[in-house]
Design brief:
Elements (H helix, E strand, L loop, with lengths): L31 E7 L3 H10 L7 E5 L12 E2 L1 H9 L3 H7 L1 E3 L2 E7 L2 E9 L13 E3 L2 H13 L8 E2 L1 E8 L7 E7 L8 E11 L6 H5 L5 E3 L3 E12 L7 E5 L5 E6 L6 E9 L5 H5 L3 H12 L4 E13 L2 E3 L18 E3 L5 E2 L7 H20 L9 H26 L10 H8 L39 E4 L5 E3 L10 E6 L10 H11 L18 E6 L19 E2 L4 E2 L4 E4 L5 H4 L7 E5 L5 E5 L4 H9 L8
Length: 630
C-alpha cells in the first residue's frame, strides 16, 4: 500500500482522508446530486464504490430495503471478479472466508444399474492457469459488505441511503440537473411520503423488475422460461462423497442437480431439476414445496441419501433469457445527437439462469464500466460522448453471456440418454472455461479502445481484453509481486512502459519516451490539473528487461519516480525488473525492442504501441480530453 506521502499515518491506512463532498457529508439525501444510483445490488454497489474515489462528485445510492442485504441469492465469484476485488483492496480477505473451487465432479447413471449414480469425471477448474486468482463461492451479501466498507473509507465517505423506493423519472436536457427522480420513503417516520431528487445522471441497478428500465422505455425481450429448478441453501447430513465439491449430477431416474458447496464448511446449495414448464403446469411448479424439492433431490442422488437439518433459503425459478436492446436512455434514432443521462445495469438489462454463475459477475463489470466514465466526465477529464461507449460495450457482453448460458442450461437439463456423446457435458465445461471465468470480454475499437495495429508487440495483452497480470520484482525494495495487483480502483489510466534492452542511464528508446512523456505538451501527463500530483490522472510504471539487482534506481528517468504529496516525495514503487523464474517479456509475448501497454481504469487493455509512437499515443489520449473534436 502507498501512504505517508501526505505525512505520517498512524491509523488504518485503508481509511483515506475525507475530502471534497466527504467533508461534513450530510446524512440526509440532498435535493441535488451528480449521480443517483438506484439499487444496492452488485452493480450498484461497485459503481458507488468506484465513484466514491472522486472527491468532488456527489454520488448517492438509494435502496428500498431498510438496511443491508442479509442473504443474497447469488454466490458464484469468477476469477475476473476476484481480480476486480483486488483493485478495491479486499481480494485476500474474501478469498480467506470463501469456498474455493479447484475441481468439478460429474456424476452420471451407472451403466450396470441406471438407477444408481457414479462419478465419471473430475476435471480441474482452471487447468490452463488463466488467472492467478481462484474461482470462489461466497454469499452476495458479503460482497456488498466489502464494497460498503470501501465506500465508507473513501474520501467521499459514501454510505447507502436505505428506505427509498424509486417511483419515476423525467429527463429534460436543459439545466444543470436534467433528471428529476421521484422516490418513496419505505421506512422511518416519513414512510409513505414522496421525495424528489434532481440528478445529472442516474444509474438503474434495481434488478430484473427494474422501474428505471421501464421509465426509459426499455423492455426485456427474449426466450420464455420453459424449465423449472428448485434451489435451496441447506445444512444436511449425507453419505454423498462429493458433497464438498462442485458437481453436475445427472440421474437415470430423471432429473439433474447442480451442487455448489458454500463457504463455512457445512452449507451447500442445490439446483434441483423440476422438469419442463408448460402453460398448464406453471402454477403447480411455482407452488412446489421445499419438502418436494428435497424428495426430488434424494431420488436423483440414489443410492446416496440427503437428510436436510436446516434450510437457510430456498426458491423455485424458471430459466429465461432476456436482454434489452440498449443500456441507456438514448433511442436508436437519437444516437449521435444527444448523450445519455440514464443508464441501466445488471439484471435490469440482462437476465439468464443462475447455473453458470454469471449474473453477479457480469453485473459488477457493468457497474465498473459506467462508473469510471461518469467520474471522468463529471470531473472534466473527458467529454460527454465517452458515456455512449457504455451501452455499446456492455450490450454485446450481455448478448454473449446469454448465448453461452442457453447452451449450458440446455445441457444441464438434458437427460443422460439424450446425449450423443456421454462426455459432452464435461467436455463443454472444460472447452469453454475461459468464458464463465469472465475472460472472453473483448471490447471493439472506439474512442477508448485503439485498433490492434501493433498487437504483435504484446501478444499476451490483446487490445480490448482484460490486462492479464504477471510476476515482476520491484526494484526499490526487491519485493516480488504481480504487476496488475497494484492497479487500484482509483479511476486512473495505467501506462505500462516495457523498456528496450539498454539498462537505465544508457541511451535508449525508453529514455527518449520518458523525456517526451514528462515534457511534451502532447503527452497525456500534460493534461494533469495544475497543483495535482503528476500521476493524479495517469499511473505510469516502467518494467526493465533485467533483474532488479542490475537496475540503478538513480539512473531511472524521473517520470517513473514522480514527486507526490505536499512534501514532493519521490515515489519509487513504479520501477520494476523481471522475475528471472517467470520473465514477463516471455510470458506475455513482449517485444524486446520495447512496448507501451495502455490500460483503462476498469483493467481492460486500450492500446499497444512501440516506444517510438509518441505521436500516436498523444493522439489517442487527446481524443478523450474535454474540447476534443468528436
Amino acid at each position: 500500500m502507498h501512504f505517508h506521502h501526505h505525512g505520517y499515518v498512524s491509523g488504518n491506512p485503508r481509511v483515506q482522508a475525507a475530502a471534497g463532498v466527504g467533508v461534513n457529508r450530510p446524512e440526509e439525501l440532498p435535493d441535488e446530486v451528480d449521480v443517483l444510483i438506484v439499487g444496492s445490488g452488485p452493480a450498484g454497489m461497485l459503481a458507488a464504490a468506484q465513484l466514491s474515489q472522486f472527491p468532488n462528485i456527489t454520488t448517492r445510492l438509494v435502496e428500498r430495503r431498510p438496511g443491508r442485504l442479509a442473504i443474497g441469492q447469488a454466490d458464484g465469484i469468477q476469477a475476473r471478479s476476484v481480480e476486480t476485488f483486488q483493485a478495491f483492496g479486499f481480494a485476500e480477505r474474501i478469498i480467506a472466508e470463501a469456498y474455493r473451487i479447484t475441481e468439478m465432479a460429474f456424476w452420471k447413471p451407472d451403466p450396470a444399474d441406471p438407477s444408481r449414480i457414479i462419478r465419471t469425471a473430475r476435471p480441474d477448474d482452471d487447468p490452463t492457469g488463466i488467472s492467478e486468482f481462484p474461482h470462489l463461492i461466497v454469499n452476495q451479501a458479503r460482497v456488498l459488505d466489502y464494497f460498503a466498507e470501501f465506500m465508507a473509507s473513501a474520501p467521499t465517505r459514501m454510505t447507502p441511503d436505505y428506505g427509498f423506493d424509486f417511483q419515476s423519472l423525467e429527463v429534460d436536457d436543459d439545466g444543470e440537473y436534467p433528471v428529476t427522480v421521484t422516490l418513496l420513503h419505505t421506512a422511518g417516520p416519513r414512510e409513505g411520503q414522496e421525495r424528489t431528487v434532481r440528478a445529472k445522471y442516474v444509474i438503474g441497478a434495481d434488478g430484473a423488475r427494474s422501474k428505471v428500465r421501464q421509465a426509459i422505455g426499455c423492455t426485456l425481450a427474449g426466450d420464455a422460461a420453459n424449465h423449472a429448478w428448485g434451489v435451496m441453501d441447506v445444512l444436511a447430513v449425507t453419505d454423498f462423497p462429493d458433497i464438498r465439491l462442485k458437481c453436475a449430477i445427472q440421474s437415470g431416474a430423471g432429473g439433474s442437480i447442480l451442487l455448489i458447496p458454500r463457504e463455512g464448511g457445512h452449507l451447500f446449495r442445490m439446483y434441483v431439476d423440476l422438469g419442463e414448464v408448460t402453460a398448464h403446469t406453471k402454477g403447480d411448479i411455482r407452488s412446489t414445496t421445499i419438502e418436494e424439492v428435497i424428495e426430488k433431490a434424494n431420488a436423483i442422488l440414489h443410492p446416496y441419501t440427503l437428510d436436510v437439518r436446516n434450510v437457510a433459503w430456498n426458491s423455485v425459478y424458471e430459466v429465461g433469457h432476456r436482454l434489452t436492446d440498449r443500456f441507456d436512455d438514448v433511442l436508436p434514432e437519437d444516437i449521435g445527437t444527444r448523450t445519455p443521462r440514464v443508464f441501466i445495469t445488471g439484471d435490469a438489462c440482462h437476465t439468464h439462469s443462475a447455473k453458470a454463475g454469471q449474473g453477479m459477475n457480469v453485473s459488477m463489470q457493468d457497474g465498473f464500466n459506467i462508473a469510471w466514465k461518469l467520474g471522468h466526465v463529471l470531473e472534466g477529464r473527458s467529454p460527454e460522448n465517452l458515456l455512449s461507449t457504455y451501452s455499446a460495450e456492455r450490450q454485446v457482453v450481455a448478448k454473449n453471456l446469454i448465448d453461452f448460458d442457453k447452451q449450458w442450461s440446455t445441457l444441464m437439463a438434458k437427460k443422460p440418454e439424450e446425449f450423443e456423446d456421454p462426455t459432452e457435458l464435461e467436455n463443454f465445461y472444460v472447452r469453454t472455461m475461459e468464458f464463465p471465468a469472465g475472460f472472453m470480454t473483448e471490447y471493439s475499437p472506439s474512442m477508448i479502445v485503439a485498433g490492434a495495429t501493433h498487437q504483435e508487440l504484446a501478444t499476451g495483452f490483446p487490445v480490448g481484453k482484460r490486462f492479464k497480470s504477471a510476476p515482476v520484482v520491484r526494484v526499490c525494495d526487491t519485493n516480488p509481486l504481480h504487476l496488475g495487483h497494484h492497479a487500484t480502483a482509483d479511476g486512473r489510466w495505467r501506462i505500462y512502459v516495457f523498456a528496450d534492452e539498454p539498462l537505465p542511464g544508457n541511451p535508449s528508446k525508453v529514455t527518449n519516451f520518458a523525456e517526451w512523456l514528462r515534457n511534451s505538451p502532447e503527452s497525456p501527463l500534460a493534461a494533469t490539473p495544475e497543483g495535482a500530483d503528476i500521476d493524479a490522472w495517469y499511473d505510469v510504471k516502467v518494467i526493465y528487461q533485467q533483474d532488479h539487482q542490475s537496475i540503478d534506481i538513480n539512473a531511472v528517468p524521473a517520470v517513473f519516480k514522480p514527486e507526490v504529496g505536499p512534501f514532493k516525495l519521490n515515489y519509487l514503487e513504479k520501477v520494476f525488473g523481471v522475475d528471472p523464474a517467470e520473465d514477463i517479456f516471455e510470458l506475455r509475448g513482449l517485444d524486446r525492442g520495447g512496448v507501451v501497454v495502455v490500460v483503462r481504469p476498469d483493467q481492460y487493455v486500450a492500446n499497444v504501441l512501440p516506444l517510438t509512437a509518441t505521436a500516436e499515443l498523444g493522439e489517442f489520449f487527446a481524443g478523450m480530453r474535454v474540447g476534443a473534436r468528436v
